Amino acid sequence: MPSFPLRLLFxxxxxxxxxxPVLGGEPLNEEILSQEQKTVEAAGLSDEQRKxxxxxxxxxxxxxxxxxxxxxxxxxxxxxxQTAPKRLKQLRxxxxxxxxxxxxxxxxxxxxxxxxxxxxxxKEINALTALQASLEKKEEALTDLLAAVTTDGxxxxxxxxxxxxxxxxxxxxxxxxxxxxxHTRYLALEGQRRWLLAELEWxxxxxxxVAILTELTRAERDLLALQLAERQTRIERLRQxxxxxxxxxxxxxxxxxxxxxxxxxxEVRPEIEKNxxxxxxxxxxxxxxxxxxxxxENLKKTEDRIRDxxxxxxxxxxxxxxxxxLARLLFRSFRNLPSLSALQQSAEKRHALLRKAILxxxxxxxxxQHLSDLDRLTGTWLQNLPENVSKGRRAVLKLQxxxxxxxxREALQALRQEYTRYLGTLxxxxxxxxxxxxxxxxxxxxxxxxxxxxxxxxxxxxxxxxTPLQTFTEEKTLSRIWHQLAGHFKADPAPPxxxxxxxLILLALRQRxxxxxxxxxxATHSIRSDNFLxxxxxxxxxxxxxxxxxILLYGxxxxxxxxxxxxxxxxxxxxxxxxxxxPAATMGLxxxxxRPEGLAHRHLRWxxxxxxxxxxxLRWFYPLAVICAFIVASTSELILTDLSLTxxxxxxxxxxxxxxxxxxxxxxxxGPIISQLRASRPSWVVSYHALWLPAVVLIPxxxxxxxxxxxxxxxxxxxxxxxxxxxxxxxxMLVKDFLLRxxxxxxxxxxxxxxxxxxxxxxxxxAEEEHxxxxxxxxxxxxxxxxxGQQTRRLLHIGFFFAALAGLWLIWKDAVPALSFLxxxxxxxxxxxxxxxxxxxVALTLxxxxxxxxxxxxxxxxxxxxxxxxxxxxxxxxxxxxxxxYAWTTLTQYMIAALGIYVVFASLGVQWSExxxxxxxxxxxxxxxxxEVVANFISGLILLFERPIRVGDIVTVxxxxxxxxxxxxxxxxxxxxxxxxxxxxxxKFITGEFINWTLSDPINRVLINVGIAYGSxxxxxxxxxxxxxxxxxxxxxxxxxxxxxxxxxxxALLIIIRAYLGTMDNRLSTITELxxxxxxxLNAAGIEIAFPQRDVHLDTRQPLEIKITDPAKEKG
Length: 1116
Hints:
Largest sheet: 5 strands, antiparallel
Structural class: alpha+beta
Radius of gyration: 47 Å
Number of strands: 10
Distance between the termini: 149 Å
Strand content: 5-15%
Strand order of the largest sheet: 6-5-4-3-7
Mean pLDDT: 77
Number of domains: 7
Number of helices: 35
Shape: extended
Low-confidence stretches: 1-27, 769-788
């Protein structure tokens, strides 16, 4: 490095040496460009040429301004270099003598009054904020200078190439400057040339003096950091002094209240004791605020540290790119980040404190309002004293009470002020924590994106395999780990011992769980003993069988994780145990579910091949997965060391290959599972087997290959997401199967109860008839899942589908850019969203639109299929008529649709205030153009609420009589006796007249006319008819049937039967049965039912041919 005098001489020469003519050549400034613009507009150019010329003039002006800015920067840099030696000497002296920093600062006088100390604290905080901003700028400048060592040379070469190209183009058009369009192009190029010259001079000057500039900037940065630390010390001293004064004042006032309590009369003491409670609350609140401020400072320091680390990491990535050494740094930073879940839990607790403090402040305000008139309160209190209290004693009590109330008001005012500060600190702490959470999330995402595609190393050599294994397994290392574990166990033995005890208890319960599981399986054979509680008990038994190993791994791992702070090897061991507990829990539970006579067999009804294959192969794959998970996770936590890049990477690759082979073995075309699926029922699993099986088999193989060639972290990251997806789908499938099992048991029991009811009815009927023959046995219905309500099944599948989509989104949205890009695409629309409790206008994203679309589809499907679910789950258990069920189902569909519309609009950020004017305008248009439609809609709602007609009612509207089959938004459908559907607008049922045969009283009358021949015994005929009518089971005894002899007809004696039926359901069949009974009774009694007499006129224009035959002879 050249000596300091030579550098100084170089700077002086730069300052006095004439620079290249940055503004030389053809004159060029803003005034000339303005005149040129007028010339272009006056010239006879076409619109396209004029547009191009004006665009080039705009570029010329922009280049000119950039050239002037570059020249200003060069002069400032030259001036900084000129004063650099003197400034650097001064900075070094200040850094060596920190006491010189604060000589010009105002002296801290901590004995000032409280209000003056608070004012000074505010000034110190403002100065600290300005110092932090200056320090950030210096850090950025220092980073730029460190990067300039490598980037300035490249930048100079790039600008030099651009300058050469611009000068060549200027020479090419220099002889055509008389043309207006060419001249404007020349001016644009000249402006660019001048900017390039100025920029090059600035870069060359910085490149030549980067060492002294770096040294100067670093010294300024160190000085600012020193000043910042001193400011923080002053602020801390001021805060301590303020808190000390507040505590001292509170202590003095509390002592005063205690002294008043000792001197007070017994009647006043309860009031003074209330004051002591308030002063005690104030003491505690001051301590809480002090603790919150300390937490706030720590949180801010954490935020500053992480933000600084984030900035340094980004600069390191920009300078060095992504290599193996940087990957270790990124991984270490990632692991050292605070836990987001812990911060979120802390925020929830703080929100509770915030709500409690706000409520307490309102109570204090109310108490102060109550104390606004002390004389009135004192008078009221004195009035409540006994009458035997003397006048003199009343005066003493009045003075003491008034003083106590004044003291209480003072305490409440101090509490109000302190709660205001406390709430401010809580709010600031909450805001800082939210910023920290966002910062950590951004940092995590950045690190994961950078780590994802770093290639760490090619195939390792044998030495790279052996060395880390020897280091890790040598006696010294193992002995150190063992002694550390023993020390932690001696210091805190309770957690591991309790974990071990719990695991042993579960192991002792295994035999009982086996027996109980078999008993629950046997209970499913009989409908009398089968219920869903048996399935839940079987699930509990299955968990007991699978839980010991996961609990042991999780418990010991979590205990070690708390003890392994700062110890990478113990932390890796703890993380390995925790991660190994996941496959131990999931695969162990799945294997126990598939055991013979287990959940999958007797309760969930899985295919036999699926159960047997999983039970058999998980026996060896389950422990292998636990071991591999432990090795991969524990070595991965060793910050990408040789151990993780050898043992961990190749264990991962081998496991992926084995998993791929197992998947193929289980799901191959000629395997037991697919064969049984082909034989049992058609399924997409079979139909698309040739498409999905290769993909599922290749995914683990590709991850193994990626890990082998060096993309270990990317493969590990994607495999973690794949396993989460797999077990999420397994959990979803189990939830769906449990719901189907519940529906199955419920449907089976309902049908069984229906059979029992019919059996009892049959038994009662036979008892009445005194025929006590043996009743047929009750058959136990075996209900298949396919016999369940289609709407209920469809709703379950829809819920499963959308839950699967939601799970995929949550698992993969941060890992796959194809899913996260939706949040980055903004639409040409804005919306108002509540961000941090404040409404803000933000751009509508494609993710918002897709979310709204999905919610709309889900709402539509739910509203369409909810009727079956309500009918199956609720209405069958309630004594409700068919019409009432239909009304409630329709109203539920309307409510779901309305809720869905609200949710869709809320997901798009549409507020009520934004659409109320639109709805108001729409209502005006509706009032004129769609009044009939709206009237029918409102009438439909009235029909559903008031229910003058119900589904199933028999009504007569105009000349149409039939059964109400549907009540829709606009119209009601009536099915007449010819099975014709009449669509009648709802308005007619509200404004018109109609007959409802079954509204409040379903009893209806049957009218039958019977004509008997003249000469018949009318009394006997009436008695026979009465016997037939009264013996019919559908005819009611009350009202009593009425049989009357009404008329002497032309051809018969007319008897009319008036009988009443309980419902309209069997009206026609009852009339038919009555006709049959009457005919048979009268015919058996020899009473002739008359037929009409008619006069027959014969054609006598020619002789009539008469033939007499004997029927007896014809039969013979």
